[in-house]
Amino acid sequence: MPLLRLERITKRFGGLVALSEVSFSVERGSIVSLIGPNGAGKTTLFNCVTGVIRPEAGSIRFEEEESLMGLTPHQVAELGIARTFQNIRLFANMSVLENVLAGTYVRTKSGLLEALWPWGFAAHQEERWAIDRSMRLLEQLQLAPFADHLATALSYGQQRRLELARALASDPELLLLDEPAAGLTYQERQELMAFLNRLKGQGLTVLLIEHDMRVVMPISDWVVVLDDGATIAQGSPKAVQEDPRVIEAYLGAKPDGVRPHGV
Amino acid sequence: MSPGEFFLQQFINGLAIGSIYALIALGYTMVYGIIQLINFAHGEIFMAGAYLGLAAILLIGSIGPIGAAAGAAPALSLVLTILTAAAGCALLGLAVERVAYRPLRQAPKLSVLITAIGVSFFLQNAVMLSFGAQDRYVPPLLPVLHARIGSVTVTLMQGIVLAVSLMLMMGLQGIVYGTALGRAMRATAQDPLAARLMGIPVNRIIAVTFAMGSALAGVGGVLFGLTYSTINFHDGYLTGLKAFTAAVLGGIGNIPGAMLGGLLLGFLEGFAAAYLSTQWKNVVAFTVLVLVLILRPRGLLGERVAERA
Amino acid sequence: MRTAILVVLISLPFIDRNPYHVEVLTTAGLYALLALGLNLIVGFAGLLHLGYAAFFAIGAYTYALLNLRAGCPFWLGLPVSMATAGVAGVLLGLPAVRVRGDYLAIVTLGFGEIVRIVVTNLEPWTGGPNGLLGIAHPSIGSFRFGVDSRPYYWLILLLVEGTAWACARLRRSRIGLAWVALREDELAARCLGVDTTRLKLIALGLGGGIAGVAGCFFAAKQGTVTPDSFDFILSVMILAMVILGGLGSVRGAILGAAVLTIVPELLQGFSSYRMLLFGALMVVLMQARPQGLLGLAQIRRELRGRRAAA
Q1: Closest partner residue to C185 among A91, A112, A149, by Cβ?
Q2: C180 vs A94: CB contact, 8 Å cut-off?
Q3: For residues B54 and B221, what is the distance between their CA atoms, to the nearest angstrom?
Q4: Least CB-CB distance to C107: which of B38, B293, B307?
């Protein structure tokens, strides 16, 4: 059974149809890429899954039973879905560590009483646990030396990694990444791909939006192509790459994998 | 007085005070439209306008020949008074923008808000020190005349308030939608950076917007003083807040909206005072404010504003 | 450092025997308490609130009415005022948390004015514009606080110290972190599982509760309450203290309150020019330090603190 299954998702903005009857599934433990030209509706789809906006029709099922339709973003997050944003959205006036700590919110539970209890043993233990976990993530993403820096003091690539660390801190089952490789150097891109493969090895499921075919093709188990709000093709990277409709709509008659759109 | 006539009377009263609210609301809306700042000091500019009007009236009366001429032609002294207040307030608005707001164009929004409040304190106290803390009597410029239709009374002053406000609003509409200046203002409101790249002197356009909004508030102040005959340095706060409500009600950033909002608020308040009690009329204004913001934050005529992070 | 300041403050009334000074500091303490409460709402959770004086009023009238009508003692009035104002914070927050930014500011401003006008007009209960008189001062056993400033000074010192401690704790807690996250980027916070409505209401409830405590203290100290003590200017002054001190900074809120209470007193020599200068000073200060007195320093301190404490 797939971890996430979308069926006939339709979303309109006024008269504009942003998504029309989009259906696909994300198998547990796989990496699925969502590709398509700018304005194809990829980020809109992420927003539907995470409850930021509500589709007019269709169904989104997570873990077989759970319907995500009508849930708020925080409820979706509680179910174990974490995401990053196309235009990095870090907490600017927080330290790097605090950004990741904020990600542990759904995995911790101390409330007001624990916070104000002067001999706060439980809260203290939980805080220790959260800090340890966050520091481990920062180490994995080579951000540990900057733990106490302001998030905005990081370089662009580091900020992307920090957003990834923050999403992972919530210990998700499904990770949604919106253009994680955008603006990265060659070296950083290679590291990102290796890291995503490692996450997959740990059993995490990843759905990513990506323009860069050099990232998409090697790491994806399944590729879904959106154009103008509709799925025009899906399949293995190889099959999609050779699909004439994809070449027509997305690659613009350049089947050699050079991306026509980009930064 | 029949219920119908009573209603009509309240309608006329509401129209008069409503057009004063509308004049002030225009300043809020223009400034918000162009730099997304709630200019909390705007109410004080209105109040300063009322006092400038008072000063002009006293001055005109005290200068022999002009006083005599003005006494003979009250319309002339009204025009002079209005022009003095409008010019004075325009200068005041320019000064406030230059000294207090322009240096903070890139600063956090809250600092600008606090600055606006500081300006508010400053203006209030400057007026109090110059004119005293007690209510000041504003001598009537025009003969106290009124027309009667059945038992409904329309005073000359109400007529003037209406006529002047209407003229100014139409003039403003003409400037904003019919001149190069207006086009520059709208461009700056849409996207200051793009406007600058197109060669629009953005800072000057913002200054002009402040000056125009302040001049309108100044005229509102004169009309307010002449309508109620007494003014106080505290008047800016409550009237300003209500005018702001009017701007929000109509859709902040939207010029026809500010006019509509002002008139509506005037009616609502007039009817609340007449049918409920005067004590509760201010509650009506604020309840309207809260309800509009919660139920229809873009106001009656406002477009949906994209969320600014 | 902190202990040293505290010792000096506690012993101050013995060193400085000028009752006027103690009185000014007591007022500063009252404002500090209010600033701490508002800082929870504006500084931590990022909700721009312009009607905070309403909660102060609710706290003050709660104690005044309980005391006058039921003979409720101060020490019982304190938690009841806190609860009442806290509940009011949550109830008024329910519709308000749906709107954002500038609009939230105006909605809360509207609420603040509505509360004040309602208090003014509910004459049979609140005494209308004349307010309520003869509210009992606090007493401990047979010791009565009376009109001497000093016992109030020590009491407010205790309240401010306790509240500041709680605020600092909260800021470091899981809830505090979520507040700051939602202040910085609400959408990102929601996608991390932060139930923003709930957290906003917690901030409004706690902030309201602190204002309730301050209101109860104020009513008990003055012995009278009138609606004009709770006008918009007060809401603005408290906000100015929070922003001047540096949004989100606990020490900043206290410092801002002290500065904005003491400076106008120092300007007393200028008598009627005092508020004029004060307004000008606010403008100048915001241009010199748009982040507030302790704004950036606070952030840096917090950054250093987190790992060291773990």
Answers
A1: A91
A2: yes
A3: 10
A4: B293
- Give the chain B residue nearest C103 (alpha carbons): B293
CB contact residues (below 8 A), chain B span 144-203, against chain C: none
| pLDDT values of chain C reduced to their tens digit, one per residue, 310 residues | 788 999 999 999 999 889 999 999 999 999 999 999 999 999 999 998 989 999 999 999 999 999 999 999 999 999 999 999 999 999 999 988 888 777 788 889 889 989 999 999 998 999 999 999 999 999 998 999 988 999 999 999 999 999 999 999 999 899 999 999 999 999 999 999 999 999 999 999 999 999 999 999 999 999 999 999 998 889 988 998 998 888 889 999 999 999 989 988 888 777 678 788 888 888 888 888 877 777 655 555 555 555 444 4
Closest Cβ–Cβ partner in B119, B244, B307 for C283: B119
Q: What is the pTM of this model?
A: 0.86
Domains of chain A with bracketed CATH: 1-80+172-185+198-263 (3.40.50.300), 96-171 (no CATH)
Complex-level ipTM beyond the 0.85 threshold: yes
Burial class of residue C148 in the structure, from the number of CB atoms within 10 Å of its CB (0-12 exposed, 13-18 middle, 19+ buried): middle
Domains of chain B: 3-295 (1.10.3470)
Range of the domain at C89: 22-230
Are C287 and B104 an interchain contact pair (Cβ–Cβ within 8 Å)? yes
Residue C11 lies in a domain: no
Structural domain contains residue C26: yes
Chains sharing 3 or more CB pairs under 8 A with chain A: C
CA distance C88 to chain A (A): 19
Chain A residues whose beta carbon lies within 8 Å of the beta carbon of residue C302: 95
